[in-house]
Amino acid sequence: MSWADAVLFAARGLLRRRGRAVLTLVAVALAAALLTALLMITETGRSRVLDQLSRGGPLAGVRVDAAVDDGVLRRVRALPDVAAVVPIATTRLLVATDGVVVADVDEGGDGAGAAPAVRPGADVEGIVGVDIAQADNLPITVLAGRLPEPGTTTEVAVDQRWLERRGVAQGEEAGVVGTEVVLGAVREGAGGRRDSLAARWTRALVVGAVAQEAAAGGVLAPLPVVLDARAWAAGGAGPAGEDPLTGGGGEGGPYEGLFVVAQGLNQVDEARQQLSALGLPNEAPENLIASVLRYLHVVELVLASIGVIALVIAALGIANALLAAVRERRREIGVLKAIGARDRDVRRVFLFEAVALGLGGGLAGTVLGWAIARGVGAVVNDYLSAQGLAGVTVALPPAVLGGGILGSAVLALLAGTVPAVRAARLPARDAMGEG
Amino acid sequence: MSSPSSSGGDGAGAGVEVRELSHRYERPEGRLTVLDGVGFSIPPGGHVALTGASGAGKSTLLSILGGLEPPQSGHVHVGGHDLDGLDGDELASYRRRTVGFVFQHFGLLETLTASENVEVALTLAGTRARARRARAAELLAAVGLADRAGHRPGALSGGERQRVAIARALANRSRLVLADEPTGNLDERAATRVLDLLEQLPAERGCTLVVVTHDRSVAERAPARLHLDEGRLSGP
Fold it and tell me: Which end of chain A, N or C, is more open, meaning fewer C-beta atoms within 10 Å of its C-beta?
């Protein structure tokens, strides 16, 4: 008997007792749904917790707080356990939010000293410059709007410090998107006078609000914005390369730090040792993350065990249904053998019946579990939204999808083994019936 | 039965030779001897009625001749096969290629149509789908059921079911047809038609036919009869 014929026979066998088959299928589906929903919810919670711990950045991130030049940057990139390196440059600029562009560039000459005159509505603000194209490798979470386009010098995002200082409540971050700011780089000693200050003003559009832990600052900008501002400021007559607002930034290299991503959580220690060997002080939250991961793993195991137990109970249901079928179809099996079926033909038919129940139940259950998890996610998101917190995204990981369906099929196959073997061993003489 | 000349290929009947065949069953109450030194022979294309009271060993003898169970002792030779030397798969192959069964209970699969029931035997023999359908249609036409091919057994009368069973028994061009009380569940008219069909098999298809029956009138239609009495042959 070919495999296709065996499948056909199995289907006929199941259809013969539709009610029993449907009930068995429902049992498997409910168990698979429970397993899928539990795993999806666990995975979502896990992602959420880790996201909070890593502040949206990669779990294997290492922060380097030291001035770095391009040579050191290249050496860090070449380290064996490093997957990515994002240089971070910071500076302080005057930031005006009143929309008034200050046209004159010479603010000095009044003998007020080195401190720049600040126009009403302008604050000194820390600016964090990063390679926006590598934002995925940084602890940056977009709260509203979007990130600036990589390479642009006219778009910025503001972060939680900016929002807090201006009293923007959680959930209202979108209100700042689309506003305009004016960034002022200040040069000391314009025109050869050490007691004068000059400012270069640049208009920029706030395209997003973010939560970021890449570096301290209130504005997140593409790297060229910071490097250009610093270069312009350094063109003055102050101490070499010194930024008049920060009093530093000119020595040791163009970057104030790095955000290094190790190859994985298990490589964080090695990556840190390699950075230390280069003389770069560094820190990483991996110990906390690793501990939390262990606890989350325990929770996952417990919940998955509940689902698996349900699935095993359903598998026992399959075994029971098939054993009943073997008893009922004793003569039919004998007839099949009488007309030439081999033991393995009979065994194959019953195994296919078991797999069909497992596969069908697993498929239906996974879809049902997905729907349940999405429903739970919607309720949770309503609650989080009411609390002013970001929502969660309930996703169906491929491993859960495949595991739910294939796991059900494999368990069903195992459950069907005993009935299938028992059916195969029935004597052909049973075809004759009693007497 | 209409002549199946178009079907062709139905081979010569299988000669049957049984010597010193004994068979016992272990029961909680002790060993039960159901066949005790049975010996007989049937020429190829022969037609034999096997009679005897209930428990005389008729069904056991039929089971052994049909390869449903191996002989415990003695020698059984059917159409070139020594059944006492065959293992499980070889017996299945023997049943598939050489033997066709007709049961008192018809033995049709309830979820399949008449045509599909005939095709099952061909499926097990590895015949391709198109050839299966053609062969089933030919055989159902031969037993007068061409218009009932798409009906499931539940929609057929007893006589029609048994004719489907006969068609199935012939599907693989069986050389030995074993019928176990083929008219036991049929009314007289249906029984007569089924017996007419069966009795044409040796002549038209060259099959050897063994009919187990306790009905004297059925037995008397056979040119040769064997009578089992407590596991021993007592008839001609």
Answer: C
Predicted ipTM of the assembly: 0.88
Please give the DSSP secondary-structure letter assigned to residue A255.
B
* A-B C-beta contacts closer than 8 Å: 87
Please count the other Cβ atoms lying within 10 Å of the Cβ belonging to residue B31: 8
Per-residue pLDDT tens over the stretch A340-391:
889 999 999 999 999 998 999 999 999 998 898 888 888 888 887 777 677 7
Which residues form the domain of A420? 3-54+290-432
| Cα A383 from Cα B203, distance rounded (Å) | 86
Residue of A243 and A72 predicted with greater confidence? A72
By mean pLDDT, which of A37-51, A89-103, A229-243, A406-420 is the weakest? Answer: A229-243
Q: Which of A265, A284, A303 is the last residue of a domain?
A: A284
**A299 shares its domain with A256:** no
Q: Are residues A50 and A92 in the same domain?
A: no
> Residue B68 and residue A337: Cβ atoms within 8 Å?
yes
Q: CB–CB of A12 and B111 under 8 A? A: yes
Query: How many angstroms away from the CA of B63 is the closest CA of chain A?
Result: 6
| A15 vs B contacts (CB less than 8 Å) | 111
Identify all chain B residues contacting A338, using CB atoms and an 8 Å cutoff. 66, 68, 95, 101, 103, 107
- How far apart are the C-alpha atoms of B106 and A430, rounded to whole Å? 13
Residues A190 and A264 in one domain: yes
Chain B contact present for A6, CB below 8 A: no
Q: How far is B228 from B48, CA to CA, in rounded Å? A: 13
Query: Within an 8 Å CB–CB cutoff, is residue B205 touching chain A?
Result: no
Q: Are residues A124 and A169 located together in one domain of the fold?
A: yes
Task: Tell me how far apart the alpha carbons of residues A125 and A160 are, in angstroms, rounded to a whole number.
Answer: 13
Spell out which residues of chain B touch residue A429, defining contact as CB-CB under 8 Å. 63, 68-69
Looking at the structure, tell me whether residues A208 and A123 fall in a common domain: yes
B117 CB within 8 Å of a chain A CB: no
Q: Cα separation of A177 and A155, whole Å?
A: 11
Could you tell me the domains of chain B?
A: 16-233 (3.40.50.300)
Q: Over the stretch B197-235, which tens digit does the pLDDT of each residue have?
A: 888 888 788 889 999 988 888 888 889 989 988 888 885
Does the CB of B63 have a partner CB in chain A at under 8 Å? yes
Instruction: Provide the chain A residues 306-335 that lie in CB contact (below 8 A) with chain B.
Output: 331-332, 334-335
- Picking from A340, A431, A435, the nearest residue to B96 by CB comes out as A340
Shortest CA distance to A21 belongs to which of A317, A346, A280, A285?
Answer: A317
Chain B hits for A346, Cβ within 8 Å: none
Same domain, A295 and A260: no
Could you tell me if A335 and A270 lie in one domain? no
Cβ proximity of B160 and B113 under 8 Å: no
Name the residue in chain A with its Cα closest to that of B117: A336
Cβ separation B123–A15 shorter than 8 A = no
The conformation of residue A106, written as its DSSP 8-state character, comes to B
Q: Are residues A243 and A338 in the same domain?
A: no
pLDDT at B161: 92
Question: Structurally, how many domains does chain A consist of?
Answer: 2
End-to-end alpha-carbon separation of chain B, Å? Answer: 29
pLDDT the model gives residue A239: 44
The last residue of a domain, from among A284, A308, A327: A284
Q: Token pair of A124, please? A: 């000194």
Q: Which residues of B touch A5 (CB under 8 A)?
A: 123
